[in-house]
């Protein structure tokens, strides 16, 4: 499929045009087209062959001609013209937070900055600070942006790591005579970012597993290979360590390699006080091995509950386990629906019916259609007239389909003055109102979010910190104040499942729960397959100690309607 290639080309063209100071309308047109193509449910070549390019949201005559040229000739002349007008590495610098296209353009023209090393050099020698409007605060923020970007080279989002791990495990299961297979480390603990990946396989014939693993097509380089362990690079520079463990030690190895380091250190101190020793082979009292085949053996031998991997960070979970007071964490089967999905009415790629069909296939009882509001012009936000039309469409669909309840909602912008993008009368017509900050990240964000929480029609505050992993630190916001306002008003806080957001994070979720706030998991899906991301948000909820009673997604349709 050439969807990803064409989407990347349009996105790159938008980057270059933004860098060159092109009008925002043209830049946003390429960005919308890129997003629409990336989210397509079918191969763009099929759409092209059937002369349906004009049906893709955001694809007008001009963009359709460019797609046609590429699919006919494997070449897009406008792409070459635009992209070749600047050094290739220069465009990558646009993704550094706090740098901005105008500053970068001046740095390129005046200081000949063409790549990251050039940028670091002009920061160090002070020449960047001599440019117009470059104060100390601006320079410091650019430094922070570089650090954030470089951190992203060392780790990846859980949303990227987890599907990769699952593909590898799927292939490993095809090997004869293997038993249990689990990821370990930060993937198993559902941490928001992941460094190296560990996979454990239960097998007695380790060399067969190692040999087969080494032949996988995803592997780009073999780092090392032993009898029971293999280290490889996958998809460029992501390291995966495979360990083959015999049955009688598999549980102990799983516990050991899952971590975290702090959790394991505390566990071993407790074991030592009880006259035991724990290692990756088992738990021992003196010379006698008293457990290790099952992970539960380790915890039971120390007189505590088995601790779910998501909680293993030494944040009080061991004390709770010793007192048999661990929370009964929310499970995937507790989830009755997804509150936050987009459709082609705004910037999604699928119809309301298609998104509802996906929700039904996931076993949900409800789905919340929350397209963008009118101020989000870049996302084809709905005018009041269009959202009223959408409400009527949802009502019609609900009368025709008993498989799932479609809730009419909106992701309504919180404006710069704290007002919402729709009138209260219009918001009152909706089942769900998700209020979101999408601009003015440094302008009274705390006050604006609290004002939104106090609006009686607002159900949920979306992506409450506004961060993008490795790209953007987020709003300047006092989240504790916002959380307390949500507790006072009964407004829920979103756990946004988008792999680039995972917002709220686990610490904020735990604080919100402790304060008595409700949480709502939303995928922010713009394509049916993105609704599978809910498990990422569920992982964050579990890391934040959430139980079924804390999460609005666990409510029944009737209870939701009564609210």
Sheet-strand content, in percent, reads 5-15%
The assigned structural class equals: alpha/beta
Biggest beta-sheet profile: 7 strands, parallel
Instruction: Tell me the domain tally.
Output: 5
Count helical runs. 24
CATH class of the largest domain: Alpha Beta
- Radius of gyration, Cα only, in angstroms? 26 Å
**CATH domain fold name of the largest domain:** TIM Barrel
Would you count the extended β strands for me?
A: 17
As laid out across the biggest beta sheet, the strand order is 11-12-13-14-15-16-17
Cα shape: globular
Q: Based on the coordinates given, report the CATH architecture of the largest domain.
A: Alpha-Beta Barrel
| Overall helicity | 40-55%
How far the N terminus sits from the C terminus, by CA atoms, comes to: 44 Å
- For the record, what is the CATH homologous superfamily label of the largest domain? Metal-dependent hydrolases
Query: How confident is the prediction overall: mean pLDDT?
Result: 92
What are the segments in which pLDDT stays under 50 over at least 5 consecutive residues?
none
Summarize, please:
This protein has 563 residues and is α/β, with parallel strands linked by helices. The protein has 24 helices and 17 strands. Helix content is 43%, strand content 15%.
């Amino acid at each position: 499929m050439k969807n990803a290639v064409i989407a990347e080309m349009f996105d790159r063209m938008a980057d270059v045009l933004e860098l060159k100071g092109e009008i925002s309308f043209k830049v946003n047109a390429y960005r919308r087209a890129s997003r629409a193509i990336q989210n397509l449910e079918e191969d763009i070549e099929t759409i092209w062959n059937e002369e349906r390019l004009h049906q893709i949201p955001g694809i007008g005559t001009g963009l359709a001609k460019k797609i046609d040229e590429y699919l006919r000739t494997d070449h897009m002349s406008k792409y070459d013209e635009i992209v070749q007008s600047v050094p290739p590495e220069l465009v990558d610098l646009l993704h550094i937070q706090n740098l901005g296209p105008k500053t970068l353009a001046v740095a390129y023209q005046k200081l000949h900055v063409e790549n990251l090393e050039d940028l670091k050099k002009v920061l160090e020698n002070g020449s960047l600070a001599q440019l117009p409007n470059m104060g100390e605060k601006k320079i410091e923020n650019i430094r922070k942006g570089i650090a954030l970007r470089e951190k992203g080279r060392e780790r990846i989002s859980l949303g990227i790591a987890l599907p990769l791990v699952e593909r590898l495990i799927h292939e490993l299961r095809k090997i004869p005579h293997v038993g249990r297979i689990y990821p370990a480390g930060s993937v198993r603990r559902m941490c928001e970012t992941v460094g190296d990946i560990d996979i454990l396989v239960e097998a007695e014939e380790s060399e067969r597993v190692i040999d087969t693993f080494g032949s996988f097509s995803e592997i780009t380089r073999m780092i090392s290979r032993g009898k029971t362990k293999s280290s490889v690079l996958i998809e460029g520079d992501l390291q995966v360590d495979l360990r083959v463990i015999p049955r009688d030690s598999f549980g102990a190895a799983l516990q050991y390699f899952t971590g975290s380091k702090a959790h394991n250190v505390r566990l071993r101190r407790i074991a030592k006080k009880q006259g035991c020793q724990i290692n990756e082979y088992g738990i021992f009292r003196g010379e006698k091995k008293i457990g290790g085949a099952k992970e539960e053996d380790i915890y039971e031998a120390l007189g505590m509950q088995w601790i779910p991997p998501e909680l293993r960070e030494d944040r009080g979970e061991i004390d709770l386990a010793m007192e048999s007071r661990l929370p009964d964490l929310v499970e995937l089967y507790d989830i009755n629906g997804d509150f936050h999905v987009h459709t082609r009415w705004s910037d999604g790629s699928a119809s309301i019916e298609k998104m509802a069909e996906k929700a039904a296939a996931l076993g949900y009882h409800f789905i919340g259609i929350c397209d963008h509001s009118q101020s989000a012009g870049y996302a084809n936000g709905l005018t009041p007239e269009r959202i009223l039309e959408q409400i009527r469409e949802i009502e019609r669909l609900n009368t025709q389909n008993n498989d799932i309840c479609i809730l009419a909602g909106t992701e309504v912008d919180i404006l710069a003055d704290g007002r919402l993008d729709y009138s209260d009368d219009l918001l009152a017509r909706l089942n769900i109102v998700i209020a979101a900050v999408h601009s003015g990240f440094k302008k009274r964000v705390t006050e604006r979010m609290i004002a939104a929480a106090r609006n009686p029609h607002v159900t949920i505050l979306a992506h409450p910190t506004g961060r993008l992993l490795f790209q953007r630190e987020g709003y300047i916001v006092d989240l504790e104040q916002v959380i307390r306002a949500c507790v006072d008003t009964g407004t829920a806080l979103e756990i946004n499942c988008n792999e680039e957001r995972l917002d709220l994070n686990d610490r904020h979720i735990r604080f919100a729960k402790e304060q008595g706030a409700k949480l709502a998991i939303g995928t922010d899906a713009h394509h049916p397959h993105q609704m599978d991301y809910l498990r990422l948000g569920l992982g964050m909820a579990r890391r934040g100690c959430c139980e079924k009673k804390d999460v609005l997604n666990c409510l029944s349709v009737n209870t939701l309607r009564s609210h």
